Amino acid sequence: MLELRDLVKAFGGVVATDHVSLNFAPRSLSAIIGPNGAGKTTLFNLMTGHLAPTSGRILLEGQDIAGLAPAAIVARGIGRAFQVASIFPSLTVEEQLIAAVAAHQKSNERMLSAFPPEPARRRAGELIELLGMGSVAKRSSRTISHGDQKLLDVGLALALDPKVLLLDEPTAGMGPDERWAMMETVRRLWTLQHMTLIFIEHDIDIVFDFAQRIDVLRYGKVLASGTPDEIRGHPDVIEAYLGVAHEAREEAGA
Question: Of 29, 36, 160, 244, which is least packed with CB atoms within 10 Å of its CB?
Answer without folding.
Answer: 36
